[in-house]
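Reviewers asked in the last cycle whether our approach scales beyond single polypeptides. To address this, we selected a multi-component target totalling 332 residues and predicted its structure end to end. The input consisted of the following lines:
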Amino acid sequence: MDGFELTEAVRSAEQGSGTRTPIVALSAAAMTGEAERCLAAGMDEFVAKPVSLSALASALSRALGTAETVPVEDDAPGEGAALDVDADVLRRLYGAQREDMADVVNLFLDNAERQISEIEAATLHGASESARETAHALKGAARSVGAYALGDTAARLETELRAGMAKPDTLAALRARLKAARPLLMAAPEPRDGSGA
Amino acid sequence: VNDPRYAKLGVLVVDDSPVVRAMVSRMLEQMGFARVGTADDGEAALAHVTSADPAPNLIVCDIGMKPMDGMSFVAALRALPEMRLARLPVVFLTATATSELVRRAKELAANGYIVKPVTPEALALRVERALFGGD
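The resulting structure, written as structure tokens, was:
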């Protein structure tokens, strides 16, 4: 039984019961076009694989109708932490055309370096809203190139800044995550079986 | 990857992230689009659509942007007096897919919805469906 059939069974069993169990779809990044299909089938939220803890946490909090954002301790190193760089995302990107994507990765790295400096300067001057916007932009860009750990740290900083205060540890983690991601992003993975090329 | 059907078509990429703009533009160029334009928010996108000659044939658009977000942009696009522009196919890009966002996208007659990170496969599939239909 696949997730669509499960959802249909759950929704039909719920009819007339007055209850509605929230269902969060998990689907592979390559299949992200499925989001509307999942939601149309009666699921409540959609999270693309590879799943980051912060994406899952925000989907769950929306599905459960709890707080808009929940702080997640997700950038601690070790088991369960997001990958520094997801080789699969990178392989798909580089698979398209290596030179072009190397340019994109370099653009990302230059921007990320500058964005972190801007965040540091803004927090130093108490400009949390400006720092939060930059953290938000960094989060999106990082996830786009598969730098999930950096993206999650930026997401966490964004949450802290929304609450008004960035923790020094989170700021320091941002630099550390960029440093960890940099060589992995620069060393483009070999295309797998030449597909996508 | 290169599809000859795109050889005479133009596309507009709207995203506030220069990294995402560059990435998606390169992917679309590789797919064979003749013209790939970019805009960093809805206002710039609207200006592009109404002034570019020839106008783009497709729009790939982020949602969370300032000052004008993607949903407001597409609402304004659909309200343009020139039907050719008002009916342009739109594929949304988004970091999160909530049923609320998908419902609003459908109300705006969006032709596709991609959850980031954008991959060449997901983009190619959505773009093809938006332009040529089918399933």
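The beta strands of chain A are 24-28, 45-49. We regard this as preliminary and will revisit it once experimental data from Aim 1 are available.
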